[in-house]
């Protein structure tokens, strides 16, 4: 627990953001908000309004947390970057969403290898006003912590997180929409995920996700489509069963 104690000392130092930082946020925000209507899930677009994101102001985490508290009780939790699995899942189990505070440079607008604040906050936080999605994150974390010493289990949980929270699609009555933060924060993958004839788009299937390694260095070749956020949350018992089975069998994963 020592690492978590150290992490609690971190805060967003808002007064240290530069004019360039504000310009980067505004450029990325305006670009995505122009692209996302009719492509992003309605819950996300409503979430943008709920948390009060605007183009000309980098989100202040303390203010956003007050808004999140009223919807789901979640909050943004400042971390320096990638943190150990155990700490990450402990924080998420308790309703803390890990986010960095740094923004990419102007010459990195289109691609960044490590997630920055725009991805973490613009991509994820609006949907933290959705209770079923938050419930899913809590219970997924509990499964991960139950098997935190198992590399197999953590890899499988990572695949589930990747193909839902990061790169998931949802079928809404108006059509196919994006809810994965990795797509919502990416100008290129927004259109690719919905309209390109290159990737597969398949119904949400837990075993299918567990059998599919994720792709970090290019656009995805397969997207899994949920019908509702309630479907995502209700899948948790099946996730638990299949992860438990894989751990007990010491399953050999294909990468």
Write a structural description.
This protein has helices at 2-7, 19-35, 42-51, 61-71, 85-93, 117-124, 131-146, 151-166, 181-184, 187-195, 206-210, 229-234, 236-248; strands spanning 75-78, 96-99, 169-172, 175-178, 200-203, 222-226. With 255 residues, the protein is α/β, with parallel strands linked by helices. It has a single domain, classed as Orthogonal Bundle (Phenylalanine Hydroxylase). A four-stranded mixed β-sheet has the order 4-3-6-5. A two-stranded parallel sheet has the order 1-2.
What structural keywords apply?
51% helix; 255 residues; alpha/beta; 4-stranded mixed beta sheet; disordered N terminus; two-stranded parallel sheet
CATH class (first level) name = Mainly Alpha
CATH topology: Phenylalanine Hydroxylase
Record field, number of beta strands: 6
Low-pLDDT windows of residues: 1-6
Name of the CATH homologous superfamily: Aromatic amino acid hydroxylase
Average predicted confidence as pLDDT: 92
How far is the N terminus from the C terminus? 32 Å
> How is the main sheet built?
4 strands, mixed
Instruction: Give the C-alpha Rg.
Output: 18 Å
Helix and strand composition category: alpha/beta
- SSE series: HHHHEHEHHHEEHHEHEHH
Number of helices: 13
- Named at the architecture level, the CATH assignment is Orthogonal Bundle
How is this fold's topology laid out?
Layout: H1 2-7, H2 19-35, H3 42-51, H4 61-71, E1 75-78, H5 85-93, E2 96-99, H6 117-124, H7 131-146, H8 151-166, E3 169-172, E4 175-178, H9 181-184, H10 187-195, E5 200-203, H11 206-210, E6 222-226, H12 229-234, H13 236-248
Parallel strand pairs: 1-2, 3-6, 5-6
Antiparallel strand pairs: 3-4
